[in-house]
Amino acid sequence: MAFGFFGRKKERKDRHSGDPERDSKSRLTSADLLPDTDLPQLNRSRANMLRQELEYRFALQDAHINIDGHSAMVQRADGGAAHVSLRTLAMNAAGLENFDQLPELVENFVHGTLADATLKDLSTADLYKALRLRLLPTPSENDELAEYGLTIESKIRDDSILRTFTSDMSIALVLDTEHAIRIQPLKELERFDDLGALERAADRNTWQELYDASVDVTFVDAESDSEGSSFWTFESNSYYLGSAPLFLGDLLAKWAPDLDQSDGVIFAVPDRDLLIARPISTGENLMNGITAMVRTAMRFGLGNPTSISPRLHMLHDNQVITFTDYRIVSPEMEAEWEENSFDAPPAGAIGIEVRPDPYLMERLQQGGFGDFGDFGKPRDLGM
């Protein structure tokens, strides 16, 4: 099983949205027959038909769907909400013998989603079985996510956040029901039990979900590029792979027993379907590994609907810290470097900041790695 992260081309943000391109007589063009950016199981024309049918069918039920990529937020008339994936629906639509069956397919999806989204109809036992923990991005002031306060992810954070996990990720409580991954305000869930008890149930369920998940493990051998550039990748179609850092040590021991965790682990969860990790080594070997992982995390952790974080984290002594950051280099920022400096990235480049804590700095110095005065300055990694 392979999920294709390292064979796919990163999608840029110049997506086509709205109605497909048509000629002056509103006929389909060749562009309409290309795979849709967000729902590649369908071509652009049929994906737009699916989105329009969803909006229409939910409106008939006095509900509203806000589609974002291959997921959506459903708002019910009574104020409740559900976060749903559209992947399976798109796959089922692609498999229809006759696309005239689309309205019936969508209607069944709508009814199932709204039925799942009624909290009052869940028994306490069913609610406990449905609880999961999910890691969500926590945007900083300069992140794109922060600029759009009404996005799906911001609604999930606001309604279901338990606490922060790292400086850039937060832990949310979600309900995994038959048709939807859904959110409820924490105050509504507290009607069933206190949050501590609910979180413990969600913790057990999420652990079991990840333990039973089918995970594709790959050792990316890049030693021919530079010593230490290799790392491990973990890919899965499980919705909760992005929550693996909550149980990272135990899961890595199961998924990659050859990955040495004795001195700690560097990891990233750039996407909900992707985890990357490597042992903490020393010196230039460690710095080469950090560089390779930053490139991968930035490639898959920016601009995708399921992105979690493009930053690198370290697990050591049961503590998790974030030690890289990024920013877009503006023309004004070029003044921070000398005009002829080798390190000066051009305007528009992504500047990477590496901020090792004392332990990581010590590991780098053990191998005699060069000048540490440059840490904290943005560098262009040629991305």
Automatic annotation (TrEMBL):
Source species, domain of life = Bacteria
Q: Where is the composition biased (Basic and acidic residues)?
A: 14-26
Region annotated Disordered, chain positions = 1-40
The name on file for this protein is DUF1444 family protein
Q: Tell me which species this is from.
A: Corynebacterium crudilactis
